[in-house]
């Protein structure tokens, strides 16, 4: 059997091999050092140029929005201010934390797609390793944090988020929401299990849109712009106005501004100037605060008075009080009640309290829906109010005729130049709705019923209870009656102030 033996390496060969290995190691080390030096150069260049930053906010409103400590912030105004990019970046503030979960919303899926495409450019750069799950419309970050995209075409869509919890919720173009119901419901989903994470509500908007009224009321009107205030719900809020000049990338060449200047006057004021006081497609373009809004004054006790009520529980109930100037029959709306969540009893109590300074209970009209039983065996809202001493009858709810009457009452008379309808400046909700309630896109002869219209409804109930002012609409009805009815049948006055049967 042959014995295998290991060949012995000569000392000179071992030294040679060691030197070769050492040379290779030195060569590799130099290559690594070179790479490190090159990386340092690249990093230095990126730091100097800002090229390694996923998103560098513009100075001014965009930076203020991202740094805002308030719980609920609206960044809104002119188009092109960089609002959508800010909306995408803001939820990343806690994406290093596992418990962070954010929800970004738009009204429709096509609008949402635009945001998702922008996020594909930004998020992987900000957080390498972030993955997007197309089916769920969800970003997963290396930390375990999540950013979800969703849409709300209808109020009922909010129930898809029932039982969910989010530490950050944002809505891009929130004026596309007809009412504040969805936003309020989502606010109840705002919570986190991580005490180091602050929870935030964020939204952006351009003036105009079906929800412009409630957005303006919630964010724009309560305080000076860029100032913190506390809402009725106790949340700290701020409105940060946006302008085109805030975005140097769009403003510097002037092309985007030229496009905005070519828009119709209303849209130009909204999208270029960020004007919240003008409404696209406003139903009552003739309403002028300089003419129709007056300061409070001592209304003589002998002036005839009337009230009109539009009832709602989930939405606002509105009661308007009007006084009739006996000289020219001008109706002065001098008081309003505008409140959400009132039961029939609470509404009655509120009206009684607000009429304490009146000589007697004021007769009026009430929304017909408030007389409906709707399966309830107890008294209706109308019956409850009657039991509390309110003289009420069912309102005439003819929508077209009611709208026409508002137009007629807003006209200035040829003799005095005074309109037949004026509103005291303390009736802020009626003024807001007359300024901004839009026309319906499907029925342009009517207002958009998805907009805030509770004070508007109460007003048309009131004006339909008065002697109708002659209008083209009424003349058209008379023409139809002359054609289809016997000539001797005449249209009777709907309501005479002296009618003894006005109250039940």
- Strand % is 15-25%
Helix content: 25-40%
What is the approximate shape? elongated
Structural class: alpha/beta
Instruction: Quickly give the CATH architecture of the largest domain.
Output: 3-Layer(aba) Sandwich
Q: Report the top-level CATH class of the largest domain.
A: Alpha Beta
- DSSP E strands, number: 16
Q: Overall pLDDT, averaged?
A: 79
- Indicate the radius of gyration in whole angstroms: 33 Å
Can you count the helices? 16
Low-confidence stretches: 1-6, 34-39, 41-47, 484-504
Strand order in space, largest sheet: 3-4-5-2-6-7-1-9-8
Largest pleated sheet: 9 strands, mixed
In CATH, the homologous superfamily of the largest domain goes by the name: P-loop containing nucleotide triphosphate hydrolases
Measured distance between first and last alpha carbons: 129 Å
The name of the CATH topology of the largest domain is: Rossmann fold
The number of domains: 2
Description:
The strands form two sheets. The chain has a nine-stranded mixed sheet, with helices on one face. A seven-stranded mixed sheet has the order 10-16-13-12-11-14-15. Strand 11 and strand 12 (316-324) form a beta hairpin. The chain has 16 helices and 16 strands. It is of the alpha/beta class. It folds into two domains: 61-271, Rossmann fold (3-Layer(aba) Sandwich); 289-484, Nucleotidyltransferase, domain 5 (2-Layer Sandwich). The protein starts with 10 loop residues before the first helix and ends in a 20-residue tail after the last helix. Helix 13 (399-410) packs across helix 15 (454-465). The longest helix has 39 residues, at 11-49.
């Amino acid at each position: 059997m042959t014995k295998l033996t290991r060949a012995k390496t000569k000392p000179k060969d071992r030294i040679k091999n060691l030197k070769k290995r050492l040379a290779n190691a030195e060569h590799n080390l130099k290559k690594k050092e070179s790479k490190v030096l090159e990386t340092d150069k690249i990093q230095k260049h990126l730091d100097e140029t800002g090229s390694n930053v996923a998103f560098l906010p513009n100075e001014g409103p965009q930076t203020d929005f991202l740094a805002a400590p308030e719980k609920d912030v609206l960044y809104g105004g002119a188009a092109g201010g960089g609002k959508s990019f800010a909306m995408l970046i803001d939820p990343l503030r806690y994406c290093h934390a596992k418990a962070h979960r954010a929800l970004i919303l738009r009204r429709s899926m096509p609008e949402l797609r635009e945001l998702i495409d922008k996020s594909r450019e930004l998020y992987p750069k900000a957080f390498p390793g972030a993955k997007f799950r197309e089916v769920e419309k969800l970003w997963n970050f290396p930390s375990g944090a999540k950013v979800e995209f969703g849409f709300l075409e209808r109020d009922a869509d909010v129930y898809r988020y029932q039982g969910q919890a989010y530490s950050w919720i944002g809505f891009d173009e929130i004026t596309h929401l007809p009412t504040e119901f969805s936003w309020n419901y989502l606010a109840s989903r705002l919570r986190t299990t991580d005490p180091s994470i602050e929870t935030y509500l964020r939204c952006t908007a351009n003036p105009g849109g079906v929800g412009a009224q409630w957005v303006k009321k919630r964010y724009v009107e309560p305080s000076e712009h860029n100032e913190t205030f506390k809402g009725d719900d106790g949340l700290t809020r701020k409105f940060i106005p946006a302008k085109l000049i805030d975005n140097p990338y769009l403003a510097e060449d002037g092309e985007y501004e030229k496009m905005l200047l070519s828009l119709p006057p209303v849209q130009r004021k909204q999208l270029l100037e960020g004007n919240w006081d003008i409404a696209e497609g406003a139903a009552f373009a003739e309403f002028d605060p300089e003419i129709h809004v007056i300061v409070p004054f001592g209304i003589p006790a002998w002036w005839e008075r009337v009230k009109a009520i539009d009832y709602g529980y989930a939405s606002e109930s509105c009661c308007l009080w009007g006084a009739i100037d006996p000289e020219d029959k001008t109706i002065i709306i001098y008081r309003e009640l505008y409140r959400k969540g009132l039961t029939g009893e609470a509404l009655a109590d509120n009206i009684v309290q607000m009429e304490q300074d009146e000589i007697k209970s004021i007769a009026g009209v009430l929304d017909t829906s408030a007389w409906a039983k709707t399966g309830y065996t107890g008294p209706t809202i109308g019956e409850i109010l009657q039991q509390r001493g309110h003289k009420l009858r069912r309102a005439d709810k003819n929508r077209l005729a009611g709208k026409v009457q508002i137009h007629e009452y807003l006209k200035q008379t040829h003799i005095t130049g005074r309109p037949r309808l004026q509103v005291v400046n303390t009736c802020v909700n009626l003024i807001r709705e007359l300024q901004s309630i839009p026309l319906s896109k499907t029925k342009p002869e009517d207002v958009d019923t998805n907009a805030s219209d509770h004070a508007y409804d109460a007003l048309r109930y009131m004006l339909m209870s008065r002697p109708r002012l002659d209008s083209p609409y009424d003349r058209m009805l008379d023409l139809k009656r002359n054609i289809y009815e016997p000539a001797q049948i005449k249209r009777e006055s709907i309501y005479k102030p002296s009618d003894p049967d006005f109250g039940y």
